[in-house]
Amino acid sequence: MNEHIMVIDDDIHIGNMLEEALSSDGYKVSRAYSGTEALMLLSLQKPDLILLDLMLPGFSGEELLPKIAGIPVIIVSAKIDIDNKVDLLLSGAADYITKPFDIKELKARIKVQLRSRQMTSSAAELVYKELKLNTVTHNVTVKGEDIRLTRTEFAILKLLMLNPAQVITKSIILDRISADTPDCTETSLKQHISNLRRKLRSADGNDYIEAVWGIGFKMA
Predict the structure, then answer these.
(1) CB within 8 A of 37, min separation 6: which ones?
(2) What is the gyration radius of the CA atoms in the chain, in angstroms?
(3) Which residue, among 90, 92, 218, 93, has the nearest Cα to 161 in the 3D structure?
(4) Comparing C-alpha atoms, which of 157, 176, 182, 156 is closest to residue 66?
(5) Alpha carbon of 197 to those of 91, 130, 151, 204: distances in Å?
(6) How far is 140 from 21, CA to CA, in rounded Å?
(7) CA 47/CA 108 separation, integer angstroms
(8) Prior bond to 100 cis, omega within 30?
């Protein structure tokens, strides 16, 4: 096991405890002590999972979360307000554990996220209900019926299907698909997604993508 976990926490004691516990299980552990330092490190490396505290100097955890894409984030925080948890999960966090926490429970949650990520990245075919997307051949089908998508529509659908439980913000969608579809802009994104939803709906009458008002989009 050599998965890389980044611990973003300014509490030296908790950070040391996490590093020791995770390293003993064979994980590679890196540390960041502020939101600003974390952003700099993330521009240089891509860990397999992030443990993120909310009360950070520089960028707070809430400010940092939307800037992280394609990496599962477990919030580790003393904040226990239920609305705060819901907001963070809607903003893209994969999980939330409250301080003080049991290290066995945290390790179990980490394993769940890493297992899910491994299964997703290793599969050439992504499946969601009756919808199938092949990342190699670029074929998309609903109940076996071929759906013809544009390059941009395919890139958007693939991103959403790779993160089926998460709400993906508009800015993250634009950032993640920019290499494949440089012509997609904030103005045209809404139309691309509207066209994509219509094509998928026409196959079996089901909505596969839903808009989360004011945030972004997710699989329905």
Answers:
(1) 58
(2) 18
(3) 218
(4) 176
(5) 22, 14, 15, 12
(6) 43
(7) 18
(8) yes
Joined tokens for residue 160: 């959403």
DSSP state of 129: T
Quick one: DSSP state of residue 167?
P
The two structure tokens encoding residue 75: 């919030």
73 pLDDT band (50/70/90 cuts)?
Answer: very high
Burial, 182: exposed, middle or buried (Cβ in 10 Å; 0-12, 13-18, 19+)?
exposed
Higher per-residue pLDDT: 47 or 118:
47
pLDDT digits (tens, 9 = 90+) for 137-191: 788 999 888 899 998 999 999 999 988 888 898 888 988 888 777 778 888 899 9
3-class secondary structure, 184: coil
Domains of the chain: residue spans and CATH: 4-121 (3.40.50.2300), 123-219 (1.10.10.10)
Beta carbons within 8 Å of 174's beta carbon, 6+ residues apart: 184, 185, 186, 189
For residue 129, pLDDT beyond 70: yes
196: left (phi over 0), alpha (psi -120 to 50) or beta: alpha
Question: Which amino acid makes up residue 46?
Answer: K
